[in-house]
Amino acid sequence: MAGETGAPGGARVKAIGLAKSYGEAAVIRDLGFGLEAGGFAAVVGRSGCGKTTLLRLLSCLEAPDAGEILVDGQRRVALDPDTRIMFQEDRLLPWKTVLENVGLGLAGDWRRVALGALGDVGLGLRGGDWPRQLSGGQRQRVALARALAHSPRLLLLDEPMGALDALTRIEMQALVGRVWADRGFTAILVTHDVAEAITLADRVILLEKGRVSRELAIDLPRPRRRDAHFARLEAEVLGWIMSLYAGYI
Amino acid sequence: MSQGGGGHPSVRGPGGRLLPWLVPALLIALWQAASATGHINPRILPSPLEVLRALARLLMDGELLRNLKASCGRAGLGFLIGGGIGLALGLATASWRLVETLLDTTLQMVRTIPNLALLPLVIIWFGIGEKAKIFLIVCGVTFPIYLNTFHGIRSVDPNLVGMARVYGLGRLALWRHVILPGALPSILVGVRFSLGVMWMTLIVAETIAASSGLGYMATNAREMMRTDVIVLTILLYALLGKLADVVARALERRFLSWRAAGPG
């Protein structure tokens, strides 16, 4: 399946000196980080720290004012079929069936590819339904299948679990972790949920006022259990964020 | 466009389907009874049986079919041309800012003119030939379709458009898979509305200036004091209006079935 859109596996990502302003407000300034092929990074930070803007820059939905994005050493300037985004909302087309939604933008034998991706998220039997017949969690799984159907080498996740209830969110996290391990793409997750970041990522990046202020490697074995080590890491990251807040209170 | 409608509990049981027809049936029965007992002067209002007889007579001599064909032909042609123009204008103004800036103010002004106000001018221009009627229908049909197409396209969720771009849809595919289906509910509202405008325009135009068609048949009947034919024409209008509505509903069922499905 991966053969159609490029080499299988993950993409190596590097951001150098990124900057982006909207009018007077500088949202991203001199931001840089690197991520090895097949890595999973979680970007955390308080609201308005530029998380979502960073994701829009990485996907080339918007062009940076300065700096560049290298994917496998190549400079990225336009939307790329190797990169897919999962949004906060499922953004399914209500007038297309679940299967047609997953097959959106695929060429050739799209039904087979779409059905395979739907099976991967455990919804192989719901292809003929309309999106509105599914629950919120199921719809978000369809959105994940839609991203997977393109065999992306870089998957950008913009708080895709933010709107789900607690139990559905845990299921969804497990699912994302499993498909990432199976398929080996590079993933960048933007989230405000520190536990989610530590559950999924092997690196947590703290964003502060548009810059990377800290990074923490997560060396827990997978699948991750919420043991004492987990709690210690979670407390550390929370501590960073709270210390940021302290400056504002 | 609610699916359930009203909030009243729906009537169930085998009688539920027939119940809407109870009142019309009673009214006709009452009408026939009043006519038969001489309570209604047949010169004012003929009995239902006389109307039926008129129907049979006009069917036999081919008069009815000839006029019906003339009316439906005009209505169809006018609707196709007007609908096409409205759709094209709506697509153009919604897609290109420049076209919107150029045209929208003008179109918004022109649409407030009732199309029937043009009737005297149209008779001078085209006489009472076919062109006059079709022109009037085109004028009436264009604007509801234009407005609803424009509004429908503009109210497509920009998030969906952004998603489609990320998923690599080109301009054409974006229109086919996202923008047009998103605008379709609104366009079909325009279609339904303009079907109503279409019949009304046709009736008035044919009553005033025509040498064939249902409206002409009614006007002709008035000159001969044939109230039975006039009533028959009115009933036919009701029937044709209902038919147009059924077609519009069928279109909605066909193309908007995704809206009817409930959470399961």
Descriptive overview:
The complex is a heterodimer of chains A (249) and B (264). By secondary structure, chain A is an alpha/beta fold. Chain A folds into two domains: 2-82 and 154-246, 3-Layer(aba) Sandwich (Rossmann fold), CATH 3.40.50.300; 92-151, no CATH class. Helices cover 33% and strands 24% of the residues of chain A. Chain A is built from seven helices and ten strands. In chain A, the strands form two sheets. Chain A has a six-stranded mixed β-sheet, sandwiched between helices. A four-stranded antiparallel β-sheet of chain A has the order 2-1-4-5, with helices on one face. In chain A, strand 9 and strand 10 form a beta hairpin. The longest helix of chain A is centred in the last third of the chain and has 19 residues, at 228-246. The longest helix of chain B is centred in the C-terminal third of the chain and has 38 residues, at 171-208. In chain B, 31% of the residues are buried. Chain B has eleven helices and no strands. In chain B, helix 8 (171-208) packs antiparallel against helix 10 (227-255) and helix 9 (214-223) packs antiparallel against helix 10 (227-255). Chain B is flat and about 75 Å long. The two termini of chain B are 21 Å apart. Chain B has 264 residues and is an all-alpha fold. Chain B is 75% helix and 0% strand. Chain B has helices at residues 22-36, 48-60, 63-95, 97-111, 119-126, 130-154, 158-166, 171-208, 214-223, 227-255, 257-260. Classes of the chains: A alpha/beta (249), B mainly alpha (264). The A-B interface holds A 59, 61, 79, 81, 84-85, 87, 89, 91, 93-96, 104-105, 129-130, 132-135, 146, 150 and B 159-160, 162-169, 173, 177-178, 181-182, 184, 256, 258-259, 261-264.
